[in-house]
Specification:
Length: 186
């Protein structure tokens, strides 16, 4: 790759089961295939390592997002494309993180609650509806959709390929990814 890579944080937000991880994985594969430096901060993995002691109160969820944002900012400043997939249910802390990261693209992975429940392979929605999981986003805790995301992927209406193409096209338009003809010389 002859061009300098720009760091950017691509923040995938949405309900559990909306498709954040699925889209993120497709984009990760495409970007790594171009030889770009990519790191992933997945909400579930971060909770097992970086934020292990935090619970699911609003204060703990906000702190979890702040910590993810801190790490994403460090990586972004060093020329890495950071793909964050985290429910991040509260708009105010997402905006706080956005303000701290110069190169930030918010991707709202949007699917109706009933679709997310149908996709729920872990059974989390069922447990939340049965009262076994408290403060579950979308059931007894709110999800505040972004007001002005750079990209909105409607995973109930779009294919994975369409959603992935929207995100990559936006990153190219904003200058975070090299021109496809340069990135893939033939």
């Amino acid at each position: 790759m002859s061009q300098t890579q720009h760091g950017v944080t691509v923040w995938f937000t949405g309900l559990s089961g909306a498709g954040k991880t699925t889209i993120r994985m497709a984009i990760e594969q495409a970007l790594r295939g171009q030889g770009l430096k990519v790191e992933v901060l997945d909400g579930d993995i971060v909770r097992q390592n970086l934020t292990k002691g935090l619970g699911f109160s609003k204060a703990d969820r906000d702190e979890n997002i702040r910590r993810i944002g801190f790490v994403a900012n460090l990586l972004t400043r060093n020329g890495v494309i950071v793909l964050v997939s985290a429910i991040s249910p509260y708009r105010s802390v997402r905006e706080e993180v956005r303000q701290k990261i110069d190169n930030f693209v918010e991707v709202y992975v949007n699917a109706p609650l009933d679709i997310c429940e149908q996709r729920d392979v872990k059974g989390l929605y069922k447990k939340a509806r049965a009262g076994e999981i408290k403060q579950f986003t979308g059931i007894d805790d709110p999800y505040e959709p972004p007001l002005n995301p750079e990209v909105e992927c409607r995973t109930d209406l779009e294919t994975l390929e369409e959603s992935t193409a929207k995100v990559i096209s936006t990153l190219q338009t904003l200058g975070y990814l090299p021109n496809p003809s340069i990135a893939n010389p033939i």
